[in-house]
Amino acid sequence: MRNLSLVKPASQLKEEQRHTEEILLESVGIAFFRGSVAEISGGPSSGKASLTLSIIAKLTTAGEICAVVDSAGGFDPPSAVLAGVKLENLLWVKCAGDIEKAFTAADHLVQAKGFGAIWLNLNGLPASKLQLVPKTYWYRYRTRVKDTPTLVIATADEPVTGSASQSAFVFSRERTEWSGSGRFKLLREFHIAMHSRKQFYGRPIPARIEADYRNV
Amino acid sequence: MSRSYACIVSPNAKEDKEALVSVAHQFAYSIEVLDDGILFDVSGLERLIGKRSLIARKILEELQKHNVPGSVAVAETIETATLLARQNDGVSNVVHSPDTFQKLPLSDLPIERDTLNVFTDLGLRRVEDLIEIPREELIGRYGREFEEIIDIAEQKSSAVLTPNLKESESSWSYLLDSPVEDFEQLIFLLNHGLDDLFVRIAHIGLSTEQLDLLFELSNRTKRKYQIKTSFPTLERSFWLKLINLRVSLDPPEAGIKAVNVIAHFTKPRPSQTGLYAVSRPEPQSLLLTVNKLKKLVGEENVGVPVIIDQRAAEAFTLDAEAMPAGRESIESGPAKPIIAFSYFRPPIRAEVLVREGRLVFLRTKYFSGHVIEYSGVWRANSKWWENSWKTQEWDVEVEAQGVYRLCKVGHEWFLIGEYD
């Protein structure tokens, strides 16, 4: 009978057939696991929003429904379109700076089950406020999304999820590339270093994100 | 057990159709609308009302209440009732007794003209005359098809009523003894009502995607809620949650005295899931979640982002009416991530040191630093209709901080967002 514990339940096998467990971002060489909480933290202009939009673009293009919990109202739909996000597959929840509402909204979303990704965008909120949020929220999200296809992505200036997240990256901007000279310059690239908080001895992963001046 | 059918024939049947249907509905569920009137099954009403003549009188009384002219007949067979009612067509409000059926002229029966002429020559003019002739002789002379006419004459026809009244909605209502202030107290009652309503809808093989909820309030006003889903469903618990969320978003201003629920019919949803379809929230679950979120953060703050095709400073909006579609796209997303922009709400006031036309130093209440690089000035404006706007913007990289979009309005500087 003990060996039976190694056998996966039919419900889990069914879920696995329906979607891959990993969401792989080939461009930067990192993968996120469905049914878990992922964290991307970093200082200003470190590429948190850019990378998260890449994940959401990948999922919405495949027809999955994703959600953005816009805690501070910073979400910019034209940037999302440039990143390849299909806006018709995206649910936008504006919380106007109310942290409590943002966490409750994320809670409602994880309970719905079936979302591809839920982005809890805490960028721009002061760390002092975020520290007041009970850590139990994150464990609650982790439990809720377990065995579902949903990836919860939290982005903030400082790490917030503690050990509740399965993957956690700290982003930092190494340098900024500008083109042109004198008065005629253009922002071109961010060179980003991504450190995993879960692999203490791992090397930082380098990545480049480019400016896109197309008209949406 | 014998059956009873009622027929009303009215000279203005088309104009008075609604009134006729309303009258018929008071006596029967099984109703067939005819070109010149209405036919309905009143079997079983004998126990409640009495003999057929009394049923006919009751129907006539209802007709008079609705001011509809017509003749009424109640009989054991459909043909008898119809033929009797059609007698004296045009005369207002008459009841015909089945006993008079035998006095009807043979020309009222569906007999071919040649045969009818022969009968007239033979002196057979009324139904009672035809019944006198042995059945076998008539069949032997006019064939098996004539058996149907004999059955009609003998009031033995087995024709069945074909309900053809297509309803588009069904309703349930409840009048309370005293007004109820809190809608949540009515949930159990509504649960019962929806159960009753949905059983009726399911019985006719239909479903619903719109419920109209009408409250009569204690301040003598009415309050209507129209609740729609994007898919038909008869899941009671789902509708209850949706109704509760909708009413709690915008509660009635006074106590509720009466509840009326109207369900609009629609075809049921075919459920077929694809083996390789990507997983999405169930439509019920998505709709409920969106409504919960609207209750939490306000109706205008939950929806689908939409890019507006116009020249505006922030050319996007949130469509609170729309729901995520979950549509697949053939094209794949860009291979490389792009630099995204995030707004500061509200914009952060800044002090900027400008030296020899160059941005040198930037200070806000959160940080300060030398401007390492910048691009701009980017000027944009529009005077389209009344909403004219004008911006002067720079992209600035601040030492040991981030890359921001700086905006100048008059003599004041603001950071309106960050490249992230």
Overall mean pLDDT score of chain B? 87
Share of helix of chain B, binned: 25-40%
Number of H/I helices of chain A: 6
Q: What gyration radius of chain B follows from the Cα positions, in whole Å?
A: 37 Å
Structural class of chain A: alpha/beta
Briefly say what this structure is:
The complex is a heterodimer of chains A (216) and B (420). Chain A is α/β, with parallel strands linked by helices and 216 residues long.
Describe this structure in words.
The complex is a heterodimer of chains A (216) and B (420). Chain A is built from six helices and ten strands; from the N terminus they run αβββαβαβαβααββββ. Chain A has 216 residues and is α/β, with parallel strands linked by helices. In chain A, helix 3 (77-83) links the parallel strand 4 and strand 5 (90-94). The model of chain A has no long low-confidence stretch (mean pLDDT 87). With 420 residues, chain B is of the alpha+beta class. Chain B is built from eleven helices and 17 strands. Chain B has helices at residues 17-25, 45-48, 52-65, 78-86, 113-121, 127-132, 135-142, 146-153, 187-203, 236-249, 283-297, and strands spanning 5-9, 31-33, 37-41, 71-75, 94-96, 169-180, 207-217, 222-228, 256-266, 302-307, 316-319, 341-355, 358-363, 368-382, 389-398, 403-409, 412-419. In chain B, the strands form four sheets. Chain B has a six-stranded antiparallel β-barrel with strand order 12-13-14-15-16-17. Chain B has a five-stranded mixed sheet with strand order 2-3-1-4-5, with helices on both faces. A four-stranded antiparallel sheet of chain B has the order 6-9-7-8, with helices on one face. The termini of chain B are far apart. Chains A and B meet through helix 2, helix 3, strand 5, helix 4 and strand 8 of A and helix 11, strand 10, strand 12, strand 14 and strand 17 of B.
